[in-house]
Amino acid sequence: MSKKIRLVDENGIRTDGRKPDELRPIKLEVGILNNADGSAYIEQGKNKILAAVYGPREVHPRHLALPDRALLRCRYHMAPFSVQERKSPAPSRREVELSKVIREALEPAIFLERFPRTSIDLFIEVLQADGGTRAAGVTVASLALADAGMPMRDLVAACAAGKADGYIVLDLNDIEDKEGEADVPVAYMPSLNAVGLLQMDGQLTPEEFEQAFNLAIEGCKRIYELQKQALKAKYLAIKEAVEEAVE
Ligand code: UDP
């Protein structure tokens, strides 16, 4: 099968000008929705994703309540205008799968046992999608949980690596995701050295898989630093506002 699109040129540069081991530009903001207990926003390349957290709060319907811990519920949703071909507003199989894997990546980070018989509800809204939204969804949701004051073992940072035109590349964009040979999304808690999400789409040799996995972990570590900066930025802004008000 002849390939139409060249993903990496002869100088090792990708379609968006990045080197193989480069992340897309990332912007993170914390505490942007007044009505949620915690919220955050991420732009990663052309991805634009919002996360909101409610809880711990009373569980409805009540029979879902767990006697020994909080119930974490997660809804990953793509807006109909988030992709080039309008997406149906009805939940797709893919959204159901992504809601589950994102929840499972975040669950080990939260001290759920401190809030028995309550629910923590997490909403991830993809406003614009450009590949790697499950990873960016985990990153932004983890910040929204921290913003809600949720006691956590660590922040969860997520990033994909994969293969495009024979190169092992970090943080695949939409075209690399669709036309590339493989995609390996990873979610990682750096202080615990624990992986909460590991999937693979496509084909890699065992050696290539190891390279892609290690590169994704490296990407997660860089994203983790940005997450911490975004959390600090919120509190520095509050501190400055308080100081100004007192003066
Ligand atoms: N995508 C799309 N239409 C859809 C679903 C996905 O155009 O209905 C695009 C979108 O840019 C998404 C990418 O395909 O980011 C890759 O989707 P995948 O299922 O691999 O999940 P992701 O990489 O976003 O975690």
Per CATH, the architecture is: 2-Layer Sandwich
Strand fraction band? 25-35%
Radius of gyration from the CA trace? Answer: 19 Å
CATH topology: Ribosomal Protein S5, domain 2
The end-to-end distance, rounded to whole angstroms, is 69 Å
Which cofactor or ligand species appear?
Answer: uridine-5'-diphosphate
CATH class: Alpha Beta
CATH superfamily: GHMP Kinase, N-terminal domain
Order of helices and strands: EEEEHEHEEHEEEH
Overall 3D form: globular
Global structural class = alpha+beta
- Helix share bin: 25-40%
- Order of strands, main sheet, comes to 1-2-3-5-4
Annotation field: number of helices: 4
User: What's the overall average pLDDT, rounded?
Assistant: 96
Q: What is the tally of beta strands?
A: 10
> How many individual domains?
1
How would a textbook summarize the main sheet? 5 strands, mixed
